[in-house]
Amino acid sequence: MIVVVVIVMALLIHGCEVSQTNTSLKNYNADVNALITASDNNGAAMFTDLESGELTSNTSGLETKLNIIANNAREQLQRAQSYSPPSAMSGAQSALVQVMQLREQGISQIAKHIQASANKKTSTDGVYDISVGTSLLFSSDVFYKTFVTPDIAKALNAAGIPIGGSTGAQINAGQIVTDLGWLQSNFIEEKIGAQLSTTAANANNTAPGLHGHQLNYVSVGTTQLSTTGTNTIPASPAPTFTLNVTNGGDYNEYDVGCKVSVEGLSDTGTSTIRETFKGQTTNCSVTLPSPPTPGTYHVTAQILKVPGEKNLANNVMTYAIDFN
């Protein structure tokens, strides 16, 4: 009788240990699942911010957002480091920490170099450095799917825990880089709206053929300005002039300058068209820096010369405008 009791007790103890181990395995997998979901969402927010158009319009604001996301990545790394997995998951845990280290490093790298990407003189290097950051993020995806998820699946299978379906353990198959274009500098440059450095942007300026633009007309709001009479437009708020421009050359042109100046006043507004395409028409919006003093003035709108351009006669239009 005593032997039977001992055997029953041993079976009960073993059953409890197995149940406890299985619970630990499931809990660890759930922790990893939640962490990777949070990390992927953090990365998605970063890519959304990078594509927001704030690079040149609100660089410091964009940098602040990216620094917050980088801090989230650091906290997620610390969260991963704090896990105490069951022994069967030790390999997965070691790999998970490396995944989160790569993600923290990648996002921090991107946040660190966003300012350089906004400056035309340093944008080429800045965009390249961002591509280094996105490459680290992609490496984290590869590492996660090569080492973490297989080790988790192996441990669950060994314990007889079902995977998938409506009742089985769910292994997170997400990734932080969902578009591999983010590994390429030219894709990054386009997505974030970085301006190429002058040397790179005008690499075609020694190519033979026709270069340059034609200014077709200028509008303020819905009003197309007339060159033959006096145009009346409100002085406040500071008006925005829309220059309609055609690239009449044989090449795409980059960093095309636009300028509007008010004769007799210090009100001069400038803007840049990132790229114009040969044979195509586009608009350039130029806002005066402040509301002009009411009165009638000559206002000159101009498309600035690009390298290789010979004919500048059709780059300029002058209007008589009564600001009231």
Textual characterization of the structure:
By secondary structure, the protein is of the alpha+beta class. The chain folds into two domains: 2-197; 213-323, Immunoglobulin-like. Helix content is 47%, strand content 20%. It has seven helices and nine strands. Strands 3-9-8-5-6 form a five-stranded mixed beta sheet, with no helix packed on it. Strands 2-1-4-7 form a four-stranded antiparallel beta sheet, with no helix packed on it. A hairpin with a 5-residue loop joins strand 5 and strand 6 (268-276). Helix 1 packs antiparallel against helix 3 (59-81), helix 4 runs antiparallel to helix 5 and helix 5 crosses helix 6. The longest helix is centred in the N-terminal third of the chain and has 49 residues, at 2-50. It is elongated, with a radius of gyration of 30 Å. 31% of the residues are buried.
